[in-house]
Amino acid sequence: MNAQMLAETTRAMLAEGKGLLAMDESNGTCDKRFADLGIAQTVAMRRAWRDLLVTTPGLAQYVSGAILYDETIRQATIAGTPFVRVLQDAGILVGIKVDVGAKALAFHPSEKVTEGLDGLRERLGGYVAMGARFAKWRAVINAAPSGAHLPSEACVRANAHALARYAALCQEAGLVPIVEPEVLMDGGHSQAHCLEVTEGLLRHVFAALNTQDVALEAMVLKPNMVVAGRGCAVQVTVEAVANATMLCLRRVVPAAVPGIAFLSGGQTGAQACAHLNEVQARYGDRSDQSQPWSLTFSFGRALQHSALETWAGSGAHRESAQRALMHRARCASAACIGRYDASMEL
Ligand code: 13P
User: How far is the C-alpha of 100 from the C-alpha of 114, rounded, in Å?
Assistant: First the structure.
């Protein structure tokens, strides 16, 4: 483990006013989003979409790193420049999703465990050689599996263990691990339930990280915000989301962790920015000893969705889609320094 390199990468990922662009959808997820908008589900179209994203002029002003998928990290622009080189030349760090997806957990219908540990050391070595500086692994937790009040202990422990094994292997390879335990917004659960599940999950994740000797100083946590389930009749205010999210994180995330980069999880771009902004405005004062972490974004849909809708697979809309991406990135950047407000959406 090269501690100095990991520290430098972590610092650069968490640069003030910047966040991460998650553009690491698996082919299946990317194709599903394309299908919803009538875009052809082909390698060529996925490449054209990722080309549009990475070549957006000025993106580095708001984005410190981009998380790629295995197919994308090997691709080049239409003009022939590798995507990795385009990002590096723009001053954007290259990240890579290294899990191979969430699979059905034996004996626990409706729960999943994320796989990908077999052969991971060798794969990480390959990604480092390609220019990656950080990695991502996402565990997905169903907040209220059918017939149950909480996710099962089997699901929580299996996912926490895998996240910790992954994080240790990343640090050994010289990559900063993004540790992403996500409690899904799907379902009718209350915000209080989301708080209980997220807190319990994070406790298990940090216990497992400690067991595997992961250096907390050289990782980024990517949690969900504490929101009510999408189907819950009682939706809560922006202030309530910020308060519950920070209550949860303060209870369980050690001060040694340098940064927390929130996922958007299916919130709209405006919702995700309003929530992040409120978190930052209320809790972001780092001169206050109780607030040890950089707080930023690692959004996928909340950054990409409006741009994808604008593009809709047509080269003629390429520049307007890049403008849409820049608008969302500008809003997210403002939110991570507490300077976003709804008038930016007009
Ligand atoms: P969303 O922001 O769309 O949740 O995506 C973030 C991500 O990286 C999921 O793994």
Answer: 7
Distance from the CA of 263 to the center of ligand 1, in angstroms?
A: 5
Query: From ligand 1's centre to the CA of 265, what distance in Å?
Result: 6
Q: Give pLDDT tens digits for 75-123.
A: 999 899 999 999 999 999 999 999 999 999 999 999 999 999 999 999 9
Determine whether 46 is exposed, middle or buried from the number of CB atoms within 10 Å of its CB (0-12, 13-18, 19+): buried
Structural domain of 154: 3-338
Please write the tens of the pLDDT for every residue from 43-62. Answer: 999 999 999 999 999 999 99
CATH of the domain at 36: 3.20.20.70
Name the residue of 301, 306, 328, 331 to mutate for ligand 1: max ligand atoms within 8 A of Cβ: 301
Q: Hey, which residues does 260 pair with through a beta bridge?
A: 221, 295
**Residues assigned a catalytic role:** 180, 222
- Report the distance separating Cα 256 and Cα 145, nearest Å: 33
Is 346 domain-assigned?
no
Please tell me if the CB atom of residue 276 comes closer than 6 angstroms to any atom of ligand 1. Answer: no
Residue 343 in domain: no
**Among 246, 228, 139, 242, residue whose Cα is nearest residue 185:** 228
- Summarize pLDDT for 202-236 with one digit per residue, the tens: 999 999 999 999 999 999 999 999 999 999 999 99
The answer to whether the CB of 302 is under 6 A from ligand 1 is yes
- Beta-bridge partner residues of 141: 183
Check whether 132 has a pLDDT greater than 80: yes
Q: Is there a domain that residue 64 lies in?
A: yes
Residue 344 forms part of a structural domain = no
Q: What is the total count of domains within the chain?
A: 1
How far is the C-alpha of 103 from the C-alpha of 110, rounded, in Å? Answer: 10
Residue 95 and residue 119: Cα distance in Å, rounded? Answer: 19
